[in-house]
Design brief:
The protein is 33% helix and 17% strand. With 383 residues, the protein is an alpha/beta fold. The radius of gyration is 23 Å and the shape is globular.
Length: 383
């Protein structure tokens, strides 16, 4: 996978915040060298976050996010402001563009405080350097003044190291089997993102990847002179695969590996333990980080609720969210079951688990919940 193919969720997220007509859109165009965002003297031109992916060395793959103005007004304006502030939840670096005349007002201070609270490294810049007022770091999208220097400042901000998905569990020369069911839910002509990501890390570690469907797994293991180091399966085939793989071989799932990378792993295990405690009428939230066309036996809305009812012996009420949608108030939920989060940044997933923990609501993820309900969570020997 080239850097240009890097999924958005795996890129460093750089949010650009500021008032309407402060020069945010002009700045993102200057930083990317392209006319990505619409530029106008009319305040409020940017009504939704605009994303632009590029390479910014030495960071590597990044995505700049141009946000609506923080001082927008009216019913729609307030919704735009909310969308702008929601970007803080996912960004790894923040750039706050200041008006040279107004400087830092309560509007910018609120965003700066939120960035600081979330430990997001950030920079403040003054746009429109042709109307300088006092000291500060000024940039001009029109003349290019300090645009290169701003890129250097961004690149110098230290970003926490990404947690690996699997590469720290394997060594050079190991063989790793990826069990990838090809069924009605599999996208035509490709494999889904978690499988791609795990495959890439296996190869980066200098290990060999063997990809099979569940029905081919037994013969593959039997024909190997040296047993594979690990078998990684799709969660939906977990029970079938666990019956095939000898206990001497490490077994896990793509979703469990993502929980280990993105979520609070201990919190996931504790959340799964609450599945047995569900009672009639309890509300369970099932949340997915992506949006897709739901098929007749969709994992999130059909299979999981069916499994939860069977395992708990109760009739809970289920609610569903997808994409960027995630409730701010979680108190009504008895349990939250979240997908692996491959389409969300590590920051976004971690924040969701943190929010649940603060609300005192148990939370787990698909892979760990499915393994628990199949009675094979103890079989997963990566803990």
């Amino acid at each position: 996978m080239s850097m240009s193919d890097t999924p958005r969720a795996d890129r460093v997220q750089i949010g650009i915040f500021g008032r309407r007509n402060s020069g945010k859109s002009s700045l993102i165009n200057a930083l990317t060298g392209q006319k990505i965002a619409i530029v106008s003297d009319t305040a409020g031109t940017t009504t939704d976050p605009v994303y632009k992916s590029m390479e910014l060395l030495p960071i590597g793959p990044v995505v700049f996010i141009d946000t609506p103005g923080l001082d927008d007004v009216g019913e729609l304006g307030l919704e735009r402001v909310k969308r702008a502030k929601d970007v803080i939840k996912k960004c790894d670096i923040g750039i706050v563009v200041l008006d040279p005349v107004l400087g830092i007002t309560e509007t910018e201070k609120e965003v700066l405080d939120e960035l600081s609270k979330r430990n997001v490294p950030h920079i403040t810049v003054f746009g429109k350097s042709d109307i300088k007022r006092g000291d500060g770091f000024y940039v001009s999208a029109k003349t290019g003044e300090n645009i290169y220097e701003l890129k250097e400042k961004i690149a110098a901000l230290k970003k926490k190291e990404d947690k690996p998905i699997v590469r720290d569990l394997i060594d050079t020369g190991d063989a790793v089997v990826l069990v990838i069911p090809i069924d009605s839910a599999a996208p035509k002509g490709r494999i889904i993102l978690p499988q791609q990501q795990v495959l890439r890390e296996v190869l980066d570690a200098g290990a060999s990847a063997l990809c099979v469907q569940p029905e081919e797994l037994g013969a593959l293991i039997e024909n190997q002179k040296t047993p594979p180091k690990m078998v990684i399966t799709d969660s939906q085939a977990f029970k079938e695969v666990s019956e095939i793989v000898p206990k001497s071989i490490t077994l896990t799932s793509f979703s469990i590996l993502l929980a280990r990378k993105k979520a609070n792993f201990k919190q996931c295990l504790a959340g799964a333990a609450e599945l047995k405690n569900l009672k009639d009428g309890d509300t369970v939230l099932i949340s997915e980080g992506c949006t897709h066309h739901r098929q007749c036996d969709d994992i999130g809305t059909k299979k999981l609720p069916r499994m939860v009812k069977s395992f708990s012996g109760a009739e809970p009420h289920f609610e569903f969210t997808s994409g960027v949608e995630f409730p701010e108030d979680l108190k009504k939920y008895k349990l939250i079951i979240h997908c692996g989060g491959c389409m969300l940044t590590d920051t976004e997933v971690a924040l969701r688990f943190e929010t649940a923990e603060k609300a005192g609501v148990p939370m787990t993820n698909y892979g760990i919940a499915i393994a628990k309900m199949n009675g094979i969570l103890d079989r997963v020997n990566i803990f």
